[in-house]
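Deliverable D4.2, example record:
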Amino acid sequence: MTTIPTIGGGAPAIPAQVTLLQPGDMAFSLAVGAIAFLLTLLIGRPIVNILIDRRIGKKIREEEPEAHNVKSGTPTMGGLMIFLTVGLITVPFNLVGKLSILLPLGTIVSCGLLGGIDDLMNIVGGTRSGMQARFKFAWLLIIAIIAAVVLHFYLQSQRIFIPFVGSFPIGLWYLPVAVLAIMGTAHAVNLTDGLDTLAGSNAAVAFAAYAIIAFLQGQVFLVTFCFTVCGAILGFLWFNAHPAEVFMGDTGSLALGATLATVALMTGQWLLLPVIGAVFVAEAASVILQVAYFKLTGGKRIFRMSPLHYHFRLGGWSETQVTTRFWLFGIVCALIGVSLALSIP
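Output generated by the structure prediction step:
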């Protein structure tokens, strides 16, 4: 296969359009994604049963819509089946001779474990209301800093790719950008995880979009990883379909968000992350705007409730209407993001 020259296995050194595509590479990655889906289905049912037996159920916050009270006690930590599948598939299919894959793999596992601890501290019947925010923030910051250092100094990622303009080195400024992208996306996906299938369906679309971008840039190992994650998410959605048998919890949302940003940074197309992940951006922005406006006006609100999906729920949309329409919007934004990735001179 003719590939784009890369530096340290990281982002492409020249534009993606000169890559000669090989259908066999994509066929392999898609097949691995299908295997990930089937494996998640296989391990998913035992995981759900264990969570039920251990009574690891979700607490519903008082500020959530009253209609969501029926969800109280639904098993959480379903994200376990996602990052377990990704690990089990990546080691035999995508690890040998591809040490760069350890970065996204390490990110999804470490953030999954962090989220899992938080979920365990926030279960129905528990004495706590989750991990302290500053403690969770500190650990996520450490993971993000490690990832940023690996990206910049080992993978030599240091450029910004601007659609229709070109790419430019940004030097050490890359480090805070990478940390902000990883932490911001992790929190944004976490905020989106409030309705059945909402976070998972949009995360699957975003990973698929970056799989296409990585393929066009010759990063076949990253293509395989993205479709592995995508397949695992689709397997999880089998159990998360409304009415959900299990929620992904912070175990899944923090892991998927941080890993999505890491993948975006590895392709060099991190500037397109707010486009491809527009649903996540809108959800996070709605919370920020709501809180800021509430404080500035002494109690007034922009939205009926934030994050944004609750605004539409209280406006009369059913849960499936919200999730389906947000998912459709996410697909369109992903298409735009991929097209912009192809527009770099």
